[in-house]
Amino acid sequence: MAAISREEVAHLARLSRLAVTEQELDTFAGQLDVILQSVARVGEVAAADIPPTSHSVPLTNVFRDDVVVPGLSQEAALSGAPDAEDGRFRVPRILDEEA
Amino acid sequence: MSDLTKLTAAELAATIASGDVSAVEVAQAHLDRIAAVDERVHAFLHVDTEGALAAARDVDARRANGEELGPLAGVPVAVKDVLATKGVPTTAASKILQGWRPPYDATIVERLRAAGTVMLGKTNMDEFAMGSSTEYSAYGPTNNPWDLGRIPGGSGGGSAAAIAAYEAPLAIGTDTGGSIRQPGAVTGTVGAKPTYGGTSRYGLIAFSSSLDTPGPCARTVHDAALLHSVIAGHDPRDSTSIPQPVPDVVAAARLGATGDLTGVRIGLVTEFNGEGAEPGVMAAYRDSIEALTKLGAEVVEISCPHFQYALPAYYLIAPSECSSNLARFDGVRFGLRTGDDGKHSLEEVMSLTREAGFGPEVKRRIILGTYALSSGYYDAYYGQAQKVRTLITRDFTTAFEQVDVLVSPTTPFVAFPFGSRTGDPYQMYLADLFTIPTNLYGGPAISVPCGLSEGLPVGLQIMAPTMADDRMYRVAAALESTVGVLTPPAL
């Protein structure tokens, strides 16, 4: 039985905010199935008493004095945006007129 | 080809410092070389002619004013297109960032500018650094200067090819699962992955944050060490940057170049016994072990039993982190936006933008990562992979109690023809079989040319303990002193 179905790929794509074509669904389902079967080997060795490592460097919070330093100007921050209005990022409407 | 483009970075720096040649002449020679060959190689996505000449003029002016400049002042460098460069197009080889000009420099780029190096432009790569062949660039592949019908490795194929084609003496790459070392091996150049946290990730477009490591590409070990010493060091803007002094890698490379490895213990990874590797690659590997032994090194076999699980662990961890990191590309703040015609919702615009902007390998990894992180599968996949990471780290720790460095082939096979592995993603992933363990551990590793197989370059990988980057440079330089620098056929 396939580890990952076409429908699951479609669901995962929706969760990822990724529109996919019908052809991509077929391709990805087959390829992801092969990949998942190969990577499932990680379950062979990792026993319950092994602590996970998320990072090779110990992570610590980085603090600094609360001093105002120069940052990007509003113009610079918006310079790469696909659309801007009144000094803000403009995005498509998210609410209906009636809402 | 101008003689200037044949010089190493160290030679160029010395020639510029002596006043025999100007930084502008050096920059122009490399820009001319790019103009002559890059249509065939396609190492660059963007050539910054004006910026390069302006930087070179600045170096010449400062030198004329009697300023003391750094060891690489006036030397050209190419930068992988995944690092932010202020005002210079930065795309990560993706359509979703087409035309984006960052409003700031990455820390690595800042340091390159401060050192007086001359940035020639941005190099081609697999989209968002996801790939092992530079076939997944949205702007077309880079061709290997040794054989234009073959891949230059990935994801930093552009940086390695630029070096091999004499378009630049130095380049910057990034290594998440081997993306500096693997292209170095298949193009006959030197590629080093520093200790994770030894080089800053600030301004690097993130793929897998716990693994990504910027590092140097060059034609000689000494040049790689010079570039390493310029870019490495603590950066308070990167919370994973290690606040420790950088080992003296340049001195280590010079020591290695004397060809004496007396007292150095080298471990051969028993599990990398040749399974899945081409016979020609293994023959060159065995020859290089013999050469290292003749230089005085003691060679012993070391078992790292969990290395065989590194590839599966990596292909769960990296896509998981990428699925999160790439969420920021949603058509709001950067580059492309598709479907904003008043008929689609914000969510639909995001989905359509990402569909149009991402290529197949990126989509595949986002979906795989979303799966591995999803409820019900997290413990079985991502959680288990993180435990494997612990086991691999223990293997390295145990090994480095017995030896100074570990060695292996860098890649299982030489540069393969275009298209021969794109149909089967897992076959492509095998290209990084030998390089991935060290990314999961976080230690440094370098690939240095060790010979030819079927007329194509083979690399030797040298792995060292965390923050002992100098050890690998010493051994690499010693091998280079016997093997020599490989020269590709004329383009």
UniProtKB/TrEMBL annotation, chain A:
The keyword RNA-binding does not apply. Its EC number is 6.3.5.-. SUPFAM superfamilies: Glu-tRNAGln amidotransferase C subunit. Keywords: ATP-binding, Ligase, Nucleotide-binding, Protein biosynthesis. Coiled coil: none annotated. GO terms for biological process: glutaminyl-tRNAGln biosynthesis via transamidation; regulation of translational fidelity; translation. It comes from the Bacteria. The keyword Secreted does not apply. Allows the formation of correctly charged Asn-tRNA(Asn) or Gln-tRNA(Gln) through the transamidation of misacylated Asp-tRNA(Asn) or Glu-tRNA(Gln) in organisms which lack either or both of asparaginyl-tRNA or glutaminyl-tRNA synthetases. The reaction takes place in the presence of glutamine and ATP through an activated phospho-Asp-tRNA(Asn) or phospho-Glu-tRNA(Gln). This is Aspartyl/glutamyl-tRNA(Asn/Gln) amidotransferase subunit C. The lineage of its organism: Bacteria, Bacillati, Actinomycetota, Actinomycetes, Micromonosporales. The gene is gatC.
TrEMBL record, chain B:
GO terms for biological process: translation. One of its GO terms (molecular function) is ATP binding. Pfam families: Amidase (PF01425). The active site is at K80, S155, S179. Residues 25-471 form the Amidase domain. GO terms for cellular component: glutamyl-tRNA(Gln) amidotransferase complex. Keywords: ATP-binding, Ligase, Nucleotide-binding, Protein biosynthesis. It is an enzyme of class 6 (ligase). The keyword Hydrolase does not apply. It comes from the Bacteria. SUPFAM superfamilies: Amidase signature (AS) enzymes. It catalyses: L-glutamyl-tRNA(Gln) + L-glutamine + ATP + H2O = L-glutaminyl-tRNA(Gln) + L-glutamate + ADP + phosphate + H(+). The keyword Glycoprotein does not apply. Its EC number is 6.3.5.7. Coiled coil: none annotated. Heterotrimer of A, B and C subunits. Allows the formation of correctly charged Gln-tRNA(Gln) through the transamidation of misacylated Glu-tRNA(Gln) in organisms which lack glutaminyl-tRNA synthetase. The reaction takes place in the presence of glutamine and ATP through an activated gamma-phospho-Glu-tRNA(Gln). NCBIfam families: gatA (TIGR00132). Belongs to the amidase family. GatA subfamily. This is Glutamyl-tRNA(Gln) amidotransferase subunit A. The gene is gatA.
